[in-house]
Design a protein that fits this description.
This protein is α/β, with parallel strands linked by helices and 406 residues long. The chain has 16 helices and eight strands. Pfam families: Abhydrolase_3 (PF07859).
């Protein structure tokens, strides 16, 4: 009998553990809830395993998560519509998609930066390869998908410098001419950390006297745009949300700048910004920049300042190249036509909403597409087996906007 009791206890504990992993609250209005729950659970399990391997000193947390990227990798494969090659632009690896259909005139071009918190991802991941392929085929456009170097091996500003070098190289008249691209129809785009890089590149190009070609547009898909306040309403509401909980976003942000856990701990408690940088908070004051429906139930309180030591050691987190929301309105005014996608169930939602608000106020033409039933990373789920209807819908909206505006 005691043996029976032990077995029963083990069964109950195993069931409770399984239930803990399997039960992920999925918002009511999200399509295909069971599929989403399964995907979210898989990510949770991988996150816990990465945590264990990190604590045991077997493998860095981010390196363990990179196994997802490796599993998703597809080789560059051409088809009847697109020629796909892996090459280098300005010594940075890129995956190049060239349409085979004849063009009536010069082609459009999209320079795309993948997401993954500056630590994960690859242009060769099945979902990014497919999205670039669709973009190239539907727009009859040249697509340059950039493989920038990643943390923890490389920290800011390496990721930014890689994508900037590729963009600057591609925008040269002779390079555009080589690929039959219209210099007046080039766009930068990216999702999540890639959206951050696209916004930073678009800003930097305005300051660069060596670049003659102007971007026609920037496309920012659920972008991360500010490092100052990691307790915005969206961070609070979605702290334990699907795919990108607040704790993981804090890890991504801190790892972008350093592997020093002191910065991660300070960011986790939202006490990383020194008093000397207090003037920057005007650019992300959500009490003025968010619409009433997103402010609802939240009371704005001023920042709690941290030590100046972290900012002196790792100044990158206060650099507009890492946090594009931190620039003045005067710098925003000259930015190109903009598309911003935000998702309701996303810690980064308010970053995108505030940027859209500030760009519109500065006179930039902005399309702000807010998906009320979607979550962070939804557009990456467009390929089997983790294929979601919401991913297809958002990808189609993005491609339709590009087709109309580029």
């Amino acid at each position: 009998l005691p043996d029976m009791g032990t077995k029963l206890l083990c069964f109950v504990l195993a069931s409770a553990l399984l239930a803990y992993y399997l039960y992920t609250p999925v918002p009511e209005d999200v399509e295909e809830p069971w599929k989403v729950m399964f995907i979210s659970t898989s990510f949770r399990v991988l996150g816990h395993l990465a945590e264990v391997t990190d604590r045991l000193g077997l493998m860095n947390y981010m390196e363990a998560l990179m196994l997802i990227t490796a599993a998703e990798y597809v080789a560059p494969t051409s088809d009847e519509n697109i020629t796909v090659t892996d090459t280098e632009f300005s010594n940075v690896a890129v995956r190049l998609f060239l349409p085979r259909k004849p063009a009536e005139g010069l082609r459009r071009a999209v320079i795309f930066f993948h997401g993954g918190g500056w630590c994960l991802g690859h242009a060769g991941m099945k979902s990014y390869d497919l999205l670039a392929r669709w973009t190239s085929n539907r727009l009859n456009a040249v697509v340059v998908s950039v493989n920038y170097r990643l943390a923890p091996k490389y920290h800011f500003p390496v990721q930014f410098e890689d994508v900037y070098a590729v963009t600057k190289f591609f925008l040269q008249r002779n390079v555009l001419s080589q690929y039959g691209v219209d210099p007046e129809r080039v766009c930068v785009a990216g999702d999540s950390a890639g959206g951050n890089l696209a916004a930073a590149v678009a800003q930097q190009l305005l300051e660069d006297s060596e670049v003659d070609t102007k971007l026609k547009a920037q496309v920012l898909i659920y972008p991360a745009l500010q490092t100052l306040d990691l307790n915005l309403p969206s961070y609070q509401e979605n702290a334990d949300q699907l795919i990108l909980p607040r704790s993981l976003m804090v890890k991504f942000w801190s790892e972008y700048f350093t592997s020093d856990l002191a910065l991660r701990d300070a960011m986790a408690s939202n006490r990383h910004v020194p008093l000397q940088s207090s003037h920057l908070f005007q650019f992300i004051n959500w009490s003025q920049l968010l619409p009433e429906e997103l402010r609802k139930g939240h009371v704005y309180t001023g920042p709690v300042y941290g030590s100046s030591e972290l900012a002196q050691k790792y100044p990158g987190f206060l650099d507009p190249r890492a946090a594009p929301l931190l620039v003045s309105d005067a710098r925003l005014r000259r930015l190109p036509l903009t598309y911003i996608l935000t998702c309701q169930y996303d810690v980064l939602r308010d970053d995108g909403v505030m940027y859209a608000e500030r760009l519109q106020a500065a006179g930039v033409s902005v399309t702000h597409d807010h998906a009320k039933d979607a979550f962070h990373g939804a557009m990456t789920f467009i390929s089997a087996p983790a294929e979601l209807a919401v991913g297809h819908r958002l990808a189609n909206r993005y491609l339709e906007w590009l087709d109309r505006n580029l």
